[in-house]
């Protein structure tokens, strides 16, 4: 069947896909069954495009989290006892079905989150790729090392830690969910997923598809609800052995405290205020394209966005002039229009937060350059206009606070030492980008940046075997490749004597 690609085709597909969510409240999926909350409570899911109601959503709390955690604990024995090869086959079937329903997932994600089809068209395919990557690694997930001595054979092995709580944000909900859930399932863990309350729909599709692909009931459960109720209960539940969390740094702090009494293992992917350093010897054309792409794609709601561009003074004026021209040419519009780059923000609260930074920038003393607004913007939508803040310094709020929208802060620096000092002068430490044609400088600066990931002469190009994660307030732990299994599994050392070593003799 031909995939719809025009705005008109996309909107008619959206009407079909969303109708089911409008007709009855979105249920939880617990132990393979679609269930309402025991209390009957729901919350409303609003469209970012025009503020209309997409549907009601079952609002879970301690009861539903307990049901889901018990289901995950019961399912853990059989799922973890399967061979890696058996888990691999099931997870590939999940990936097959994600690819079959890629357009449905993309349209649903656009309408639920405000992200545009231009980028979401690949969301389900990237999700499927995450499942395939970790499926292929399931058969070797338990492998360890051989560490022999003269008297003992030591070998390590890994076993799944148990039921996992996965808590995800609203910026790219589907992709981020698969990024956590696929390695957990490949490792042999079971999952209780609490998706963001502002964008719950694609998590439901993922769990529905996983069941259809043959994932046993209870292996992947989804409980909808608010962070302070369902999310909090999940982090406190004694059956849940670890929490994989993606969201704000302040929420990470709360989760750390909530998880302390049950000694939760925690993995945090948090906020960022990522520097892109552009030296005057760089390939300016490519640097310009990359800076624009990394801040204005995905609505600027990207943890690794290039939110601070640090430009060497000698090229600052020319570089920001060219940034401004490009930024003004970016289309803001309906998320289902394939030509649109920036759609509506997820929620009126977030729209107000992002927009308010124009005033903040003015109060800070920076210059505000605005892009082209959406001329036909439907009333009630959470529309913003892309922004570029120039003549900024790193002590300003616009350089220190995570805006999480299409707003770029441009700061001048004098020399290499100055650039590194500014880049590191932030509470965050997720990603850094270095643009230079001096190979020595590329390595020197990369080594001095206090961030978890550096890209040299590149935007964020993800390679799944590499580690992903941040330093400082940007996170704890790493995902990707074997690093994911380190989190979802326990490492065990087994030491076997060769029968020759001395055993100290005590007593008579
Ligand atoms: P958020 O922290 O407000 O919410 C994230 C999730 O946490 C939601 O599901 C929410 O319901 C839940 N939650 C809230 N309070 C909770 C509590 N007390 N206990 C348990 N769960 C709770 O984040 P957001 O606004 O949805 O997402 C945006 C943030 O996510 C940004 O800071 C962004 O940088 C970050 N992010 C980071 C990465 C990364 O890889 N580092 C990736 C994407 C997004």
Account of the protein in words:
The protein is α/β, with parallel strands linked by helices. It is 41% helix and 19% strand. It has a seven-stranded mixed β-sheet, with helices on both faces. Helix 10 links the parallel strand 9 and strand 10 (265-269). Helix 3 (84-100) packs antiparallel against helix 6. The longest helix is centred in the first third of the chain and has 20 residues, at 62-81. The radius of gyration is 24 Å and the shape is globular. The structure holds nicotinamide-adenine-dinucleotide (NAD). The site of nicotinamide-adenine-dinucleotide (NAD) has 32 residues, from helix 9 and helix 10.
Helix/strand layout:
Layout: H1 7-23, E1 28-30, E2 33-35, E3 42-46, E4 53-58, H2 62-81, H3 84-100, H4 102-113, H5 117-120, H6 123-137, E5 152-160, E6 164-167, H7 173-187, E7 191-194, H8 201-212, E8 220-222, H9 227-236, E9 242-246, H10 249-259, E10 265-269, E11 275-278, H11 284-296, E12 308-312, H12 313-328, H13 348-364, E13 367-370, E14 387-392, H14 397-400, E15 407-413, H15 416-424, E16 428-429, E17 431-435, H16 439-448, E18 453-456, E19 471-472, E20 475-476, H17 481-488, E21 489-497
Parallel strand pairs: 6-7, 6-9, 7-8, 9-10, 11-12, 11-17, 12-15, 14-15, 17-18
Antiparallel strand pairs: 1-2, 3-4, 5-21, 10-20, 13-14, 16-19
Helix pairs in contact: 1-4, 2-9, 3-6, 3-7, 3-8, 6-7, 11-12
The structure holds nicotinamide-adenine-dinucleotide.
Mean pLDDT: 97
Number of helices: 17
In percent, how much strand structure appears in the residues?
15-25%
* Annotation, overall tally of beta strands: 21
Characterize the quaternary organization of these chains: single chain
* Spatial gap, N to C terminus: 84 Å
CATH class of the largest domain: Alpha Beta
Low-confidence stretches: none
| Large-scale geometry | globular
CATH superfamily of the largest domain: Aldehyde Dehydrogenase, Chain A, domain 1
Q: Estimate the helix proportion, in percent.
A: 40-55%
The name of the CATH topology of the largest domain is: Aldehyde Dehydrogenase, Chain A, domain 1
The CATH architecture assignment of the largest domain turns out to be: 3-Layer(aba) Sandwich
Q: What compounds sit in this structure? A: nicotinamide-adenine-dinucleotide
Q: Please summarize the sheet with the most strands.
A: 7 strands, mixed
- Going by helix content, strand content and strand pairing, the class is alpha/beta
> Number of domains in the coordinates?
2
């Amino acid at each position: 069947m031909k995939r719809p690609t025009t705005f008109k085709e996309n909107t008619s597909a959206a009407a079909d896909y969303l109708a089911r969510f409008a007709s009855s409240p979105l249920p939880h999926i617990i132990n393979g069954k679609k269930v309402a909350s025991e209390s009957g409570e729901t919350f409303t899911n609003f469209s970012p495009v025009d503020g209309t109601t997409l549907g009601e959503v079952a609002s879970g709390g301690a009861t539903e989290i307990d049901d889901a955690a018990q289901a995950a604990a019961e399912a853990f024995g059989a799922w973890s006892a399967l061979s890696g090869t058996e888990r691999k086959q099931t997870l590939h079937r999940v990936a097959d079905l994600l690819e079959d329903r890629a357009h449905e997932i993309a349209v649903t994600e656009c309408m639920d989150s405000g992200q545009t089809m231009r980028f979401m068209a690949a969301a389900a395919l990237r999700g499927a790729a995450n499942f395939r990557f970790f499926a292929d690694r399931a058969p070797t997930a338990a492998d360890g090392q051989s560490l022999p001595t003269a008297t003992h054979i030591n070998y390590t092995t890994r076993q799944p830690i148990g039921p996992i709580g996965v808590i995800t944000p609203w910026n790219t909900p589907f992709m981020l969910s698969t990024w956590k859930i696929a390695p957990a399932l490949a490792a042999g863990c079971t999952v209780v997923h609490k998706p963001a309350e502002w964008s719950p729909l694609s998590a439901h599709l993922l769990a529905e598809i996983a069941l259809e692909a043959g994932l046993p009931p209870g292996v992947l459960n989804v409980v909808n609800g608010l962070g302070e109720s369902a999310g909090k209960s999940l982090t406190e539940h004694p059956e849940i052995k670890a929490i994989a969390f993606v969201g704000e740094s302040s929420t990470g702090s709360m989760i750390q405290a909530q998880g302390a009494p049950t000694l939760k293992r925690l993995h945090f992917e948090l906020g960022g205020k990522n520097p892109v350093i552009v030296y005057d010897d760089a390939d300016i054309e490519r640097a310009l394209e990359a800076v624009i792409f990394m801040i204005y794609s995905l609505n600027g709601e990207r943890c690794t966005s290039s939110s601070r561009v640090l430009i060497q003074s000698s090229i600052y004026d020319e570089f920001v002039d060219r940034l401004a021209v490009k930024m003004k040419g970016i289309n803001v519009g309906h998320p289902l229009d394939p030509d649109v780059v920036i759609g509506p923000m997820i929620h009126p609260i977030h729209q107000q937060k992002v927009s308010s930074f124009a005033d903040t920038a003015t109060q800070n003393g920076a210059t505000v350059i605005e892009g082209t607004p959406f001329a036909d913007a439907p009333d009630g939508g959470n529309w913003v206009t892309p922004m570029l803040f120039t003549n900024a310094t790193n002590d300003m709020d616009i350089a220190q606070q995570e805006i999480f929208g299409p707003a770029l802060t441009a700061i001048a620096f004098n020399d290499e030492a100055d650039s590194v000092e500014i880049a590191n002068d932030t509470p965050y430490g997720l990603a850094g980008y270095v643009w230079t044609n001096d190979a020595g400088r590329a390595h020197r600066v990369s080594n001095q940046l206090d961030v978890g990931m550096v890209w040299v002469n590149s935007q964020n190009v993800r390679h799944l075997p590499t580690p992903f994660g941040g330093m400082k307030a940007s996170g704890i732990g790493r995902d990707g490749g074997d690093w994911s299994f380190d989190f979802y599994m326990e490492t065990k050392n087994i030491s076997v004597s060769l029968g020759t070593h001395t055993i100290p003799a005590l007593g008579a």
